[in-house]
User: Which sequence fits this backbone?
């Protein structure tokens, strides 16, 4: 159940984090806290819809099932934060740092993650429908069974990412780096992979129906039929 920050919540959060009473009070009163230090804060289940948290430190914060719809999180530090089940629909996470954050089952529909770092992040079963991931670093991220329907991943780094069973239907992956990515059973129907680097990628049983592969790098790549192609080496 979503809650607003209360005096009791603020007291409990202060004990476990670097957040100050003044900053948490500001957040409670105004739903804004620019450039604040809320590291390790417990904001689980809190309603922060539309909150302005630009350039704020939320490293290690607990935002489990928090409502961050439409929140302004540009340049925010969310390193190692727990965002399991959080609602980030339409949130602005441009150039945010989400390295090793846990976004399992999070809703990132139409979120803007352009230039953000999600290296090593857990996005298993997350919904990234129509999300903007232009130039985003997803190296080593876990995107198992994630929904990336019509997501924009042009120039994104997905090297070593796990995309097993992910839905990438209509996704734009032009010039994306998918070196050694695991795309087993992924759905890439009508995806645009023009110029993408698929060197060492695993596409076992993936659906490439009507996908655009023009100029894609195929080198030591396991194809859907289990054949290994070296044509682009």
Assistant:
């Amino acid at each position: 159940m979503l809650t607003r920050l209360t005096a009791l919540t603020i007291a409990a959060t202060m004990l476990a984090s670097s957040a100050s009473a003044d900053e948490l009070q500001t957040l409670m009163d105004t739903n804004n806290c620019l450039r604040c230090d809320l590291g390790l804060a417990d904001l689980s289940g809190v309603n922060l819809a539309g909150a302005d948290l630009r350039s704020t430190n939320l490293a290690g914060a607990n935002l489990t099932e928090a409502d961050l719809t439409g929140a302004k999180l540009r340049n925010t530090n969310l390193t190692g934060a727990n965002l399991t089940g959080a609602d980030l629909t339409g949130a602005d996470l441009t150039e945010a740092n989400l390295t090793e954050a846990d976004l399992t089952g999070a809703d990132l529909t139409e979120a803007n993650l352009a230039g953000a770092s999600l290296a090593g992040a857990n996005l298993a079963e997350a919904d990234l429908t129509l999300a903007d991931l232009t130039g985003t670093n997803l190296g080593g991220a876990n995107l198992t069974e994630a929904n990336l329907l019509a997501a924009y991943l042009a120039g994104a780094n997905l090297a070593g990412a796990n995309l097993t069973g992910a839905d990438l239907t209509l996704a734009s992956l032009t010039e994306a780096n998918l070196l050694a990515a695991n795309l087993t059973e992924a759905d890439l129907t009508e995806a645009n992979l023009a110029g993408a680097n698929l060197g060492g990628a695993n596409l076992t049983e993936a659906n490439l129906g009507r996908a655009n592969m023009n100029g894609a790098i195929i080198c030591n790549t396991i194809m859907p039929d289990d054949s290994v192609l070296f044509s682009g080496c």
Observations:
- The chain is about 10% helix and 0% strand.
